[in-house]
Write a structure and sequence with these properties.
Helices cover 51% and strands 14% of the residues. It has 672 residues and is an alpha+beta fold. The protein has 2 domains: 7-232 and 500-665, 3-Layer(aba) Sandwich (Rossmann fold); 273-442. The two termini are 37 Å apart.
Length: 672
């Protein structure tokens, strides 16, 4: 079966610091035809669609607080012409670059991601150019003034094409659905539709310009391929041959690793007999460490106590000098008359509260006391040092320290001998162990060294093989680009050769879209349906009036029918449509959100809408993809619901950012 052309969305991943938030649009590895994102208001349904659009090149992404707090990058896994790719863009400030790599989110990256610019959209290395190339629209130019052949042209952007692939909530039932309030966008939308169906004016000129531009890009791609081949030929000529087999080196590495494990087991088994010797050696080593620790402890204590003993001896000497000084120089012991200098016959005393020598009043009148005793009492009352008591205390402490130091010193010789003997015992046990195990271990050591040498050689070969594979992948990528552009040029040349009349072809396409539009409204039981059609300006009519004249609920059905009619006809004709369509809030004004249109809501059931989608996807729309964000899809669509957000902590998931359950609510119109 041929791979579908265009773009298909497989998986959305919002990557954060601690975890990721995924929405999967596949079943059994295949893209679902219909995927429904269901749930309550402000739970993140709309954000899912907007992040998909952001991954495909939209300028902005949802900026809800929980998103900015939790999410760091947006990764979108898509199928481009049937090949899986991952597109990554940073979240926060809208990124100016997107990184694209082949593969899926479930697989580790095997190739380097290729940077793609967002602006300018028409650049050869832009994301828009890559996506448009898979929609058969690379190099398309749109005239700013469609009726002026000399008008300036702008390159078609993927953002322009998304008008036909994404129907956001604000455009559903809007009276400016076709950008009637913006003349430039209205004309560009018509050009986009014409380009998608290949019925635009000046097709021959446009095709010629596209062929010329693609020929230029093809020549550039061929030049890059030739330069890459020359570089590879200089670096590794073998890379130009067949792809090396990485599996051989990897298998050799696995075998060597297994042999090393077996060898370790054998060595352990062969040396089990030495277990007793190992235990003896361990015990001897432990005893040696203990003896050395005890010896170090005694040496440390002696080293700390010797200065303390010297300090106490010095203090004792100072106290003795103090005692002698008080006896020799005490000024209170008077033995000579200070006036005549004759020796007193009687030592002065305190009598009746007065000094017998000078008759001065004394503080303590109790009895008679010698002047010397009085001095001692006053000294004690003044807090002077009791020298005798301090001398006795210091001598006692000095004696204790000296005794303890002598005990430690006397045990040092024994401890040194014990430590030396323990060290010798440990050395003898180690020698006995080595002698017993050396013959058994040496054989294993030789074998182990050989295996490690072979392992290093295998790792070197594997590294060379991986480098060769990377060089070949670069060549294959450039060769693929050349082949793709060659195929596009050939297809455009065929289209140019088969070119018909643009006006007649466009009328036929508009007639088919109009017919499908009418059939859809009829299938959905549009009340009092009459004369539904789409005119040549793509404006939808019902009952002979423009869609702006219809009620809010009726406009919901009209905009859905218009969008689906273009999508379905493009898919069935194999036109240059991306191949997927996202619709936000198909029940707007029909019972959920906004103002309820009772007349339309009573006549129309949402079951008819989903029944048509399922039937069409199973038949004429096989291979297409529809993604719907709906508050409460009917039971008929229950099997197509890929995720349902509850906004209830009791029924996970709470929302798109499912671990944010208490953040400030976002508006329902933006967060869905």
């Amino acid at each position: 079966m041929q791979a579908p052309q265009g773009i298909r969305v497989r998986r959305l991943r919002l990557a954060g610091i601690d975890r990721s938030y995924d929405v999967d649009f596949t079943v059994d590895g295949r893209v679902r035809g219909l995927s429904v994102v269901a749930g309550a208001f402000s739970s993140g349904k709309t954000a899912v669609l907007e992040f998909i659009a952001y991954g495909l090149g939209a300028r902005r992404h949802p900026r809800h607080q929980e998103v900015l707090r939790k999410v760091r990058s947006c990764l979108l896994e898509v199928e481009l012409s049937g090949q899986s790719h991952v597109i990554e863009r940073s979240v926060g400030e809208p990124s100016k670059l997107a990184y694209v790599r082949r593969g899926t989110l479930a697989q580790p990256a095997s190739t380097m991601a290729e940077p793609r610019t967002l602006e300018p959209a028409g650049a050869a290395d832009s994301l828009s150019t890559l996506l448009l190339s898979h929609c058969k629209l690379e190099g398309v130019q749109l005239r700013e003034a469609p009726t002026n052949r000399e008008s300036r042209t702008d390159p078609l952007s993927i953002r322009d094409l998304m008008w036909l692939a994404f129907l956001p909530n604000e455009r559903v039932a809007d009276k400016n659905f076709l950008f009637e309030n913006d003349r430039a966008r209205k004309h560009k939308l018509r050009q986009v539709v014409d380009v998608v169906f290949g019925v635009h004016d000046d097709r021959a000129i446009e095709l010629g310009n596209r062929i010329q531009e693609l020929d230029r890009r093809l020549a550039q791609a061929r030049g890059e391929l030739a330069a890459a081949r020359a570089f590879v030929a200089e670096q590794d000529p073998s890379a130009l041959d067949d792809t090396p087999v990485q599996g051989e080196s990897e298998q050799e590495l696995a075998e060597i690793t297994e042999q090393l494990a077996v060898l370790d087991l054998q060595a352990q088994s062969a040396t089990d007999f030495a277990a007793r010797l190992r235990r003896e050696h361990q015990e001897a080593a432990k005893a040696a460490r203990t003896a050395a620790a005890v010896l170090r402890d005694h040496e440390t204590q002696i080293a700390r106590l010797l200065p303390l003993r010297a300090q106490y001896a010095d203090d004792l000497l100072k106290l003795g000098m103090l005692a002698q000084a008080r006896q020799l120089f005490d000024p209170l012991r008077v033995t000579t008359c200070p006036a005549c200098l004759h020796r007193l016959a009687q030592t002065p005393t305190a009598m009746n509260g007065q000094c017998s020598l000078c008759h001065h009043e004394l503080g303590a009148p109790e009895g008679d006391a010698p002047a010397g005793s009085m001095d001692d009492r006053h000294g004690a009352e003044d807090g002077q040092l009791d020298v005798a008591a301090e001398i006795r205390s210091t001598r006692a402490r000095l004696k204790e320290i000296t005794t303890y130091i002598e005990d430690l010193d006397s045990s040092m010789e024994t401890l040194k001998l014990r430590a030396e003997e323990a060290s010798l015992d440990e050395q003898r046990a180690a020698a006995i162990l080595d002698q017993a195990t050396s013959p058994a271990v040496s054989t294993f050591l030789v074998a182990r060294d050989d295996l490690y040498r072979r392992r290093e050689q295998a790792l070197h070969r594997l590294e060379l093989t991986q480098n060769t594979v990377k060089l070949q992948e670069g060549l294959a990528k450039r060769a693929s680009a050349v082949d793709r552009q060659q195929a596009q040029v050939a297809r455009l040349r065929e289209e140019l050769a088969d070119l018909g009349d643009a006006t007649r072809d466009r009328d036929a396409i508009i007639a088919q879209i109009s017919s499908r539009y009418a059939a859809l409204l009829s299938d959905w039981r549009y009340p009092k349906l009459s004369n539904p059609y789409i005119d040549t300006a793509l404006t939808p009519f019902v009952r002979g009036e423009r869609y702006q004249e219809a009620s809010s609920g009726a406009r919901t059905l009209i905009t859905l029918a218009w969008q689906l009619a273009v999508f379905e006809v493009a898919t069935e004709l194999g036109a240059a449509h991306p191949g997927f369509l996202m619709i936000d809030s198909p029940q707007k004004n029909l019972g959920h959100g906004g103002t309820l249109d009772v007349t339309i809501a009573d006549a129309v059931t949402i079951d008819d809408f989903y029944h048509h989608l399922s039937t069409w996807l199973a038949e004429r729309g096989s291979g297409a993809q529809l993604i719907i964000a709906d508050n409460s899809p009917p039971l008929i669509a229950e099997g197509d619901v890929v995720v349902r957000y509850s906004r209830s902590e009791d029924r996970p998931p709470y929302g798109l950012i499912d671990d944010e359950t208490s953040s400030e609510e976002a508006p329902a119109t933006s967060h869905g």
